Amino acid sequence: MSALVVFDSNYGTTESVAGAIADAIGGSAVSVSTISPDSLTGVDLLVVGCPINGWRPSPRMQAFLDQLNPGTLRGIQAAAFDTRVHSPLHGDAAGRVTRRLKSAGAHILTRPTGFIVDGKTGPLADGELDRARQWGDSIVAALAS
Ligand SMILES: Cc1cc2nc3c(=O)[nH]c(=O)nc-3n(C[C@H](O)[C@H](O)[C@H](O)COP(=O)(O)O)c2cc1C
């Protein structure tokens, strides 16, 4: 099975979450800046993660999602996460990404989730890297069920 985590990251925080999830699912993590939708050919499991920027997915991730056509992700199992500050006004990226993955034909394995950062440039809040690994494990479990 080919598993890929596609991430965007301005300060490295989301990249570290992506790396932990990639380890958990037995795949690799790749920056959204370096790929196109064609790179997803042959991928069975796709996890997408980015920071919330301005209450929505980061601009580079939005540009990537805009390239996905209906059916592009047919046959691919997928899940999405974001990183966000601890605030009632954080907005949402993971939910929006999930909807885009679904409309491109992906089968969504689990509910979107957000990992908390302590400030704009990070670091991750205590315990969040462990939670990322656990979330990755839960994706593998969902695949098996
Ligand atoms: C331009 C900008 C806008 C941001 N807007 C939000 C926001 O609307 N909601 C939020 O929770 N965090 C916001 N943040 C904080 C990001 O969530 C934080 O920078 C990110 O999680 C860090 O991950 P990274 O190191 O991978 O970039 C913003 C950060 C930047 C730089």
UniProtKB/TrEMBL annotation:
Domain (Flavodoxin-like): give its ranges: 3-140
Q: Which Gene3D superfamilies match?
A: 3.40.50.360
Know the name of this protein? Answer: Flavodoxin family protein
> From which organism does this entry originate?
Cryobacterium glucosi
Q: What is the lineage of its organism?
A: Bacteria, Bacillati, Actinomycetota, Actinomycetes, Micrococcales
